[in-house]
Amino acid sequence: MLIYCIKRIGLGILIVMLAVTLLFFMIHLVPGDPARILLGPRATPELIASMSQQLGLDKPLPIQILMFFANLFRGDMGMDVITNRPVADIVFGQLPYTLSLILTAIIGAALIGIPLGCYSAINRNSLADRVTGILSVACITAPAFVVALYSLLIFAVYLKWFPAVGAGEKGDFGDQVAHLVLPAFAIGLSWVGYLSRLVRASMLEVMGENHIRTARAYGLPERLVVFRYALKLAVLPTVTVIGVGMGFLLSAAVFTEIVFARPGLGKLIFDSISTRNYPVVMGSVLVSTILFVISTTISDLINAWLDPRIRASL
Amino acid sequence: MLQAIKRICGDPLGLVGLFLVALMVLSAVLASVIAPYDPIALNIIDRLQGPSFKHLLGTDQLGRDLFSRVLFGGQVALKIALISISIALCIGVVLGMIAGFGPRWLDNIIMLLFDTIRSFPTVMFALATVALVGPSLSTVVVIIVITSIPTYGRVVRTQTLSIKSNEYIQAELAMGASTFRILSMHLLPNVVGPLFILASMDIPTVIALEAGLSFLGMGVKPPTPSWGSILNDGYNLIRNTPWPIIAGSIPLVLVTLGFTFLGESLRDLIDPKLRKSL
Asked: Which of A165, A201, B49, B84 lies at a CB distance of 3.0 to 4.6 Å from B59, suitable for a disulfide?
């Protein structure tokens, strides 16, 4: 297991380094001078030269890559060209908003989806199971931004149950929670369907295993068999799936933050694109990529810990 | 083929999926015949109207008929999905077969490349690309192709690895058959089936991504109709009228459902064991 851990973490670091290199080349291989693109068409040659020097664009490409990595290693993602603040400060200032949104969405989805999947498995092939199955697929297929638009339209604009925009007043916990409900619902709905299908399939598999048959043969109550012995095992795959699903959650958060004008990484990227603030765009993409790689690595490690066969595959 | 359609029709969800997909394809192909109005023609007098016999889904802020825009938006969605998935499939098949059949070091490099591409959250990667090269139809296609290649490539690689150790492949190699012959005559026919099912299940994801980027104003450029841009109009007018949101979302949700049901039905056809487990 230790060798697998070292190999998998090493692979994660290698992937992040390659992703950083890819991002670097994306910025530098785009037609045109990045400094000129950054400053817009009205920039004077002096201003462009000064910006090129500030960004290190006047140096040879290999030196630029090395400087890029060295700065990144120190946590320096460059300077925001508009506010002249460090990009890292801006990105990490927005990160808690996105993380709280994702966590609320996934916890809410797990609280609804897991019992729903369990109920479907227990009542297999019943009408309720079929209806749940169709609803689950409908939830999975509904794009997050469409759900966000409908929840905004129904619950904020027409019914006025929840606030429409923002993240709530700082220090007012109740207001912040109220502002979190609709965005978390928009992201979490597809996960309700996904988790319920996954738990149902997993439960059906576990319910057919020998230890469950033995528990039943001992005359244990069905409730105990289902909740203590079957569900415990059936829930395990969801833990690993959530890790791999971090990319989807981050993507869905982008749309949701924009629809609800809520601060976060997605909103930051969107706003930075309109002001052509590339260092902030790249810093945000980089942080979300690192977050995604960390979550998939953790998920793979948990998987390998649960299933020794996986350890041999790397 | 006829038998496959017969079996899909026997599955209620498969039948619903087939119907929705056929409806989408037909309405997109025949958009210029069915659409009652020009999708980009302005008619300010009729702006922001609700559904009526004159305008089945109402009109937007510029008086454009939403039903006509939805039909032509279907054309754009289908075009982008088919073009990008076809290109991604071709590149994915070639890279996957090279990874599976080639030397170990090449396999490792290709897999690392796939893992690196997959490490970017799709929408974040799309936004970064659009930020650098600007929004356009071709940018959307390129983004979808790049992010889809690893999925297809990995499936082909796994299939190739499992098939290449078979005795009949070893016998072909021993008889001096070329790598190209083995890949095209023996491996390709075996990987095409599962790959098409995977592609059919990917179509809704691609359509939703295109709509999402157009919704953010980073996909198809106005005034070209797109389901995403209709939703964007609806978002800007959310306090005035709900109809653009309803008009833009209904086809998107129905098509996504249709392709998902059809894809699941096709998958059950190939592997009936999955049906029992799910």
From this structure: B49
Mean pLDDT over B151-167 rounds to 86
Question: Can you tell me whether residue A30 is helix, strand or coil?
Answer: coil
List, for chain A, all residue ranges whose pLDDT scores fall below the cut of 70: 29-34, 37-38, 40, 307-314
Structure tokens at B8: 């899909």
Per-residue pLDDT, B2: 67
Q: Is A80 a domain residue?
A: no
**Closest by Cβ to B128, choosing from A26, A138, A140:** A26
Q: Where are the alpha helices (DSSP H) in A208-277?
A: 210-217, 222-224, 231-234, 236-244, 246-259, 265-274
**What does the alpha-carbon distance between residue B207 and residue B255 come to, in Å, rounded to a whole number?**
9
The per-residue pLDDT for range A236-287, each reduced to its tens digit, is: 777 777 777 777 888 889 899 999 999 999 889 888 887 777 788 888 888 8
Residues of B in contact with A299 (CB under 8 A): none
Q: Is the separation of the CB atoms in A259 and B236 below 8 Å? A: no
- Does any domain span residue A195? yes
Q: For chains A and B, what is the number of CB pairs under 8 angstroms? A: 131
CA distances from A86 to A76, A81, A216, A280 (A): 7, 9, 62, 9
Does the pLDDT of residue B125 top 60, yes or no?
yes
Better-predicted residue by pLDDT, A29 or B50: B50
Cβ-defined contact of B253 to A14 (cutoff 8 Å): no
pLDDT at B277: 42
Q: Which residue of B has its CA nearest to A148?
A: B235
The pLDDT value recorded for residue A35 is 72
Residues A114 and A67 in one domain: no
ipTM: 0.85
> Same domain for A95 and A68?
no
Please, where are the H alpha helices in B42-187?
A: 66-101, 104-118, 122-133, 137-164, 167-174, 179-181
Whether A28 and A96 share a structural domain: no
> Does residue A32 sit in the same domain as residue A104?
no
* Percent of chain A whose predicted confidence (pLDDT) is above 90: 20
**Subunit contact B208:A22, Cβ cutoff 8 A:** no
Contact, A289 vs B120, CB < 8 A? Answer: yes
Give the residue numbers spanning the domain of A200: 88-313
Six-digit token string for B70:
């939805």
